């Protein structure tokens, strides 16, 4: 049994899908997605989801798990991914993890969430404090609950303060206690060797591919896809509605003078380039031991 997790990541539009299919076919692997937008049914064109033909070539896992209007989290992802890994190994196949979503990628190496469940009532309680007194009032309440301090929490960040207050109220524990419990969690996928390759391309080539990708989205029917997703409730799920390709199209549909589809292509491409810059920074900071491979030179023979 090959207890190796091979992980292929890289920026949006780098060419991960084609290379993953080539490697999986050649080496008898199944593909496990860690792309945070491929979980949602109906989000197909804007995510460049593997086509039915591509999925027929190689079995894919962790795709089309929930409706676009339903939220999904890394806490739900990890046990499902673990089950998929065991199933793949049980068939005697290798495992190829593919995707560019850093938080989900990181879940293969270390714990990324704790077990604190925050209910709607607690969230509303925090929002009420925020409405009444803003960041100052939330910080005062958080410090009252944490007389021994709040560790490295950025008290100038309203979202992080609100999240910390939610977790303290939901758990009845201090932040330091929660942090200590988090560190005691088992390492995910312990006992597996892990090999990581980051697929990259020359900036000029990647920009060309981003432009082509954005234009193909529109040509293949992204606007109609977004209309269908809106009817299905995508806006109930902020993570999905804010995804690149979808947020621009939703805004374009709502604009009194939306401009041409070429304007929409340009906006999607520009925001994709911004995302790629953030992705590169994350990969270099979080995957320091990974192998970087030029997309122009990549092939299945040299991938791992």
Defining key terms:
single chain, alpha/beta, Rossmann fold, Histone, subunit A, Helix Hairpins, six-stranded parallel β-sheet, two-stranded parallel sheet, globular
Q: Would you write up a description of this structure?
A:
The chain has 304 residues and is an alpha/beta fold. It has helices at residues 16-27, 52-57, 74-90, 102-106, 120-145, 158-171, 175-183, 203-219, 222-232, 238-241, 246-254, 261-286; strands at 4-10, 29-33, 40-41, 60-61, 66-67, 94-98, 193-200, 291-294. The chain folds into three domains: 4-112 and 190-202 and 284-302, P-loop containing nucleotide triphosphate hydrolases (Rossmann fold, 3-Layer(aba) Sandwich); 120-183, Histone, subunit A (Orthogonal Bundle), CATH 1.10.20.140; 203-282, Crystal structure of tRNA isopentenylpyrophosphate transferase (bh2366) domain (Helix Hairpins). A six-stranded parallel β-sheet has the order 4-2-6-1-7-8, with helices on both faces. α5 crosses α6 and α9 (222-232) packs across α11 (246-254). The model has no long low-confidence stretch (mean pLDDT 94).
């Amino acid at each position: 049994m090959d207890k190796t997790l091979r992980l292929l990541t890289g920026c949006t539009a780098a060419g991960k899908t084609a290379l993953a299919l080539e490697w999986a076919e050649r080496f008898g692997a199944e593909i496990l997605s860690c792309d945070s937008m491929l979980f949602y049914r109906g989000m197909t064109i804007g995510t460049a989801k593997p086509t039915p033909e591509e999925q027929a070539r190689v079995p894919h896992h962790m795709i089309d798990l929930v409706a676009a209007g339903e939220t999904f989290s890394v806490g739900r992802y990890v046990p499902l991914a673990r089950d998929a890994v065991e199933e793949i190994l049980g068939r005697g196949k290798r495992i190829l993890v593919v995707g560019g979503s850093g938080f989900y990628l990181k879940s293969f190496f270390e714990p990324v969430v704790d077990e604190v469940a925050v209910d709607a009532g607690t969230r509303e309680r925090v929002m009420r404090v925020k409405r009444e007194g803003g960041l100052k009032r939330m910080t005062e309440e958080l410090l009252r609950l944490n007389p021994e301090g709040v560790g490295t929490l950025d008290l100038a960040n309203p979202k992080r303060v609100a999240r910390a207050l939610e977790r303290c109220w939901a758990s009845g524990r201090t932040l330091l206690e929660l942090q200590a419990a988090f560190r005691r969690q088992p390492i995910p996928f312990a006992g597996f060797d892990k090999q990581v390759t980051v697929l990259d391309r020359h900036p000029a080539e990647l920009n060309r591919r981003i432009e082509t990708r954005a234009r193909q989205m529109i040509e293949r029917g992204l606007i109609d896809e977004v209309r269908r997703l809106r009817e299905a409730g995508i806006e109930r799920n902020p993570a999905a509605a804010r995804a690149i390709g979808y947020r621009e199209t939703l805004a374009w549909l709502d604009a009194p003078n939306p401009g041409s589809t070429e304007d929409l292509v340009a906006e999607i491409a520009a925001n994709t380039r911004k995302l790629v810059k953030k992705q590169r920074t994350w990969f270099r900071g979080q995957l320091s031991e990974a192998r970087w491979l030029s997309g122009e030179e990549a092939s299945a023979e040299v991938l791992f």
